[in-house]
């Protein structure tokens, strides 16, 4: 290992040989009263594009939800000097620092060494970590390479969190050295550990006062209006984001310490923008879905169609374990997933886990995953092309003894597809112990469009796939 004293001297001269320019955009960088944070992602593989960094996205989102203002994300190579420079720099500016990566057993895992250097500390084998490495990581007898994960800064402390799902303590802790919270790079370990720390560390932090406005027009059509409102509302931070969404074209965000300031800015902006481009959009249609469904019925001339379909779903989900949905990303299949959630709420809101199957669709896998997370769907990917789906579905059905009903989004008019006809023929096969049901069979194109748009249901786009 590199000599700690020699490296500290060399790195300090690099770090402090330059002066930092004062920031003029104080409103944008100060955190506006909220604690600030910086995230350091460590790894040559990230910089080479060999591995996609998802940890900083996950951490930033979670920190924002807890009222923590992330001010900077930095990606650095597996080089001690670079990591130390960033840690020193971040320590001067932010309340919290979070690192991801570089704590494994190999030669390029140097995060612990860098943290020790940054704070003029030494390294030692922490007894608790040595026991973890020996007991759970199957690293053999000391001093095998695996024990490098127990070689941490001497003054650091360990924080064991709990898994949000199981309630059990996580096996490997977050190692904390002053402001720096050190996490592994693998998302499988990073996410539950980071979630547990946030829940414990930021329980008393105030969330941001925020609102979002959705506009069905291009940015240039309201840019001057937004600029005028920005000048009149100095305590509000604004953002404007063009997005590929069937419900709107641009999302405008407003954020402040004060709910009153946000509401004032929102009213000022909405009063100046043409009313016909403002869109009522619900980014969480699955939340309070029964109340939203009932509100839709009150203003719909297709009330009888929607009520009839929901009644079917209520009947189906009396025995939820027997029902699966064929999910293909179509509007009809998403409507069925949503109606299943509404039916569950009507039956008492048990938040049960629904079940759905899909054929192989690499381009839609991320969308399917997000949809299953949002609606709590157990999704079985049959790993077959759509053309082979009927035969694969038939064989799969036979293997599922509890399966009695498969819901298909087939309609009489408007969405004719060969796959639907082929799956529907399974009803004629006496060897298949399952009934194929078509709960939306009588829906028209207008019914689908009105239901989908009024409730802002999620939909697949190329942008949906690439942005998450």
Look at the helices and sheets and give the structural class: alpha/beta
Count of β-strands:
17
Taking pLDDT < 50 over at least 5 consecutive residues as the criterion, the unreliable ranges are 1-31, 463-468
Radius of gyration: 27 Å
Q: How far apart are the termini?
A: 38 Å
Count of DSSP H/I helices: 18
Strand numbers in spatial order across the main sheet: 2-1-3-8-7-6
Mean pLDDT: 87
Strand residue percentage: 15-25%
Helix content range of the residues, please?
25-40%
| Major sheet details | 6 strands, mixed
Task: Give the overall shape, derived from the CA principal axes.
Answer: globular
Topology:
Blueprint: H1 4-16, H2 26-29, E1 36-42, H3 44-47, H4 55-65, E2 69-76, H5 80-93, E3 96-100, H6 111-118, E4 123-125, H7 127-136, E5 151-153, E6 157-159, E7 174-177, E8 180-183, H8 187-201, E9 209-215, H9 223-232, E10 237-242, E11 250-256, H10 259-272, E12 278-279, H11 289-298, H12 303-316, E13 323-326, H13 331-346, E14 354-358, H14 365-375, E15 377-381, H15 389-399, E16 405-407, H16 418-424, E17 435-437, H17 445-454, H18 462-466
Helix pairs in contact: 1-5, 1-6, 4-8, 5-6, 9-10, 12-13
Give a nutshell description of this structure.
With 468 residues, the chain is α/β, with parallel strands linked by helices. 40% of the residues lie in helices and 17% in strands.
């Amino acid at each position: 290992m590199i000599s700690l004293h020699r490296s500290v001297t060399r790195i300090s001269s690099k770090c402090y040989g330059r002066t930092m320019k004062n920031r003029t955009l104080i409103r944008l960088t100060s955190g506006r009263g909220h604690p600030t944070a910086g995230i350091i992602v460590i790894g040559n593989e990230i910089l080479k594009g060999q591995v996609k960094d998802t940890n900083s996205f996950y951490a930033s989102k979670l920190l924002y939800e807890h009222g923590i203002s992330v001010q900077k994300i930095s990606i650095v190579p597996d080089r001690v000097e670079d990591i130390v420079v960033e840690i020193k720099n971040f320590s001067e500016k932010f309340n919290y620092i979070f690192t991801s990566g570089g704590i494994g057993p190999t030669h390029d895992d140097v995060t612990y060494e860098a943290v020790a250097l940054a704070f003029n500390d030494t390294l030692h084998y922490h007894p608790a970590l040595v026991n973890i490495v020996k007991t759970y990581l199957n690293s053999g007898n000391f001093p095998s390479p695996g024990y490098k994960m127990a070689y941490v800064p001497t003054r650091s402390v360990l924080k064991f969190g709990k898994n949000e799902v199981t309630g059990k303590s996580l096996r490997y802790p977050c190692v904390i050295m002053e402001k720096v919270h050190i996490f592994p790079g693998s998302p499988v370990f990073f996410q539950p550990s980071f979630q547990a720390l946030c829940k414990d560390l930021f329980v008393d932090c105030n969330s941001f006062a925020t609102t979002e406005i959705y506009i069905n027009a291009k940015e240039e059509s309201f840019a001057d209006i937004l600029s005028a409102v920005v000048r009149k509302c100095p305590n509000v931070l604004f953002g404007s984001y063009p997005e590929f969404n069937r419900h709107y074209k641009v999302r405008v965000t407003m954020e402040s310490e004060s709910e009153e300031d946000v509401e004032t800015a929102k009213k000022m902006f909405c009063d100046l923008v043409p009313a016909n481009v403002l869109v009522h959009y619900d980014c969480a249609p699955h939340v309070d879905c029964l109340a939203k469904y009932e509100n839709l019925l009150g203003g719909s001339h297709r009330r009888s169609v929607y009520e009839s379909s929901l009644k079917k779903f209520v009947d189906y989900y009396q025995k939820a374990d027997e029902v699966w949905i064929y999910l293909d990303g179509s509007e009809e299949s998403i409507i069925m997933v949503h109606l299943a959630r509404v039916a569950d709420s009507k039956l008492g809101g048990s938040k049960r886990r629904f079940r759905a199957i899909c054929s192989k669709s690499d381009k839609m896998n991320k969308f399917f995953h997000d949809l299953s997370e949002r609606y709590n769907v157990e999704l079985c990917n049959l790993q077959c092309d759509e053309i082979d789906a009927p035969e694969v579905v038939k064989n799969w059905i036979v293997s599922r003894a509890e399966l009695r009903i498969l819901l298909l989004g087939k309609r009489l008019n408007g969405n004719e597809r060969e796959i639907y006809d082929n799956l529907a023929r399974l009803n004629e096969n006496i060897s298949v112990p399952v009934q194929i049901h078509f709960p939306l069979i009588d829906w028209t194109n207008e019914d689908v469009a009105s239901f989908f748009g009024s409730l802002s249901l999620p939909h697949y786009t190329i942008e949906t796939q690439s942005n998450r």
